[in-house]
Model the fold of this input.
Amino acid sequence: MAKTMRVVQVPGAGGPLELVERDIPEPQPGWVRVKVDACGVCHSDSLIKEGLWPGIQYPRVPGHEVIGVVDAVGEGVQPWKRGQRVGVGWHGGNCGYCDHCRRGEFFACTVALLTTGISFDGGYGEYMVAPAEALALVPDELSAVDGAPLMCAGVTTFNALRNSGARGGDVVAVLGIGGLGHLGVQFAARMGFKTVAIARGKDKGAFAKQLGAHHYIDSQASDPAAELNKLGGAQVVIATVTNADAMTAALGGLAPNGVLMVIGAAGPLSVNPILLITGCRSVKGWYSGTAIDSQDTLNFSVSGGVHSMNEVFPLERAAEAYERMMSGKARFRVVLKVTSPD
Done:
């Protein structure tokens, strides 16, 4: 086995993505080493690239949509073994004993919350190490490239939907059919919801129907709230866009007790309190999920036939892949196919 590996790192806040050689790391107790097969390029990687997350130690290797194979295990690791296919997502670990962890609110850990690609090096490289608790088992039927985006974009939309309170047959709208939304429409339809896709332009209607949407609303041609109300109102609107005005425009289409689930980061959101009060409506954000949530997402995607649509780049073109993702022109996720040494 080679002693060095290629990784793409950010040398400092605002610095370039650079391809360098590093020693292959050894896993510490409780951690595993993963030989990376593929890693998604996510908009959240800009937090590392531009230094927008406080306390990042540079140089740092981004990447939190990782699919690979367990290559080595640290002392005390159970039950993971060499050769198992695993995924590593955004949630890299938590303490397990603070009050929030004891309540199952792992995302709110106040002692040792770890984020892949921020707290420790991520998957833009041939190898990485991660806490054992961050691993999700990958189904054999799922390729690395197809599985990588499901470790963040996938689990975020899937987990938000299954925790939204909606039941089979309810009207569920997906606002935006881009990198998150094209997965959200598929998940919603496969979960048995009356699925409505909302996007800009009549040209996206046929594509929305191909994804499984029962209805399509062109927000440029009609008022999305009015159109949702014609369907009886949406029990849930999953907001995948990064446009706060678009979220506000859909809010009036919620049914009584409906919820706007925000998973796309946007600017300040304007909310009419009368809409909330008169219909007991609510606005809620949703965090992606832990490793077991990611594992559930992968399994559901295989059984339900949910597929991420990807543009694939080799590791050495990571900077180009990142710019393609940031441009908003990718259809719909960008994935690095990593070639590891033997």
